[in-house]
Write a structure and sequence with these properties.
By secondary structure, the protein is of the alpha+beta class. Helices cover 38% and strands 21% of the residues. It has 16 helices and 16 strands. It is elongated.
Amino acid sequence: MSKKNKTMVSANVALSKSYDFKTVSGVDTLYYYLPSNEDYLFFFADLEAQILAKQEELGGYIPKDTFIISIGEKEFYYNGRSKGFYFFVDTSRWLRVGFKDSKNIANVHDIFIQLESSGIYLLGIVKLFNYINDSLLASISSNVPQITRIDYNIFCQYDLSQVINKEYIVSRKRYNRRDDGGRRGYQSLKIGKAPFLLRLYDKKEELKNLEKRPLMEFYFVQNGLNLSEPIWNFEFECHRDFLKGFKIESVEDALSNAEMLFHRFMKMIRLVDISTLSQSDYDAGRLYRGKTDALWEYIDNAYTFKAIPQSYETLERIIPPKKEYDSQAFLKEFEILLNKGVENHIMISHHEIKDILRESSLWLTKRTQKLLAPFKPLPLIVDDTNYLLTRNNTPVKTIPPKLTLLSTATLQECESSLIRALHSELSEKDTDISLIMKNLKLIEAEIKNRKYEQKELELWQV
């Protein structure tokens, strides 16, 4: 390991082995959207008219890479329509571009750009990006590119499969896939899934029988890699939803924070040197207690991106609050499920749905809903007498906390009033008699107590 790398190794890194292989790092993939301007409407109308005319000429179908249209100063092959966009690839295979009607899919910008590896490795990603925005599409777009996907990568002159074992990777990403490649180990390994994942694979194996192989081999040689030795690609695939958590929304933000993001990702997904674990931690699967493998730290330190000046401000990840799963969210998902059933021509009766709901305890009748819902009786005053209204607006006469202060005649009057209220409530479909019964029991107990005391008094007077 070089002297520079040794000084950068942290205390949490295992030093059981050192590495000193050649690397080439950068950005391997870039997708983004461009907002359109006023001139775009005329451009799109003319573009769509050409496509529809060609479709009519060919009987409704245009074979891929047969219809050429000029956009700016470049010629493009028409590649078909998908998700509301007409897609094209330039004849040099530098970029793929999509255009949509401004009236459709309002929450998505009108122009989609995907940089192809041929353009990235021949011209350089920044030069190609600037050419598209400042020249090729400048007349129909607003130059505010919004990132949708970017891959930060590093080519390694080393067979990573000989060291990186998925079983010793610490990450919250539980999904992984391994493609075996025979005695030499796997050919590719993926940790996680969109919107954020780590992918490492044998680049030379991937390039077999691909048109871009000569270009990539030229790029490797120009950057000091030996074609007779292993070449692996180690990359983080990041989509817009994930990048927004770091306040990365524009292409400029994604490129100027390339190094800081890569270093952050290397800590989020980490290879552990199991020789640094105690036997008890290893047996219990507590891999997170192990030190970072020296290979992981070497790759982390080797990553640089010099195409544009880098920002070294600390990136704080925004953790969105967990959304409460309520009845509205449940009903929305239920509606989506029903629509899926309709699309697949599934036939069921409403009785089957009711049976499932009843068994799941989610079924609530109107009466049950009223009983579960919090209810506060409304006060009512009539002729200086206080009442409380039930759910059915039946007036229930209130009684004082201490019934001993009331005369027997007043108690009997209160009892008669409560009995009338009870009869009124019992005539309702959904009764609300809890308050009435509570007060009747209190009065009944007080009257019974008074009769007992009167009897005791009579006995003493004999």
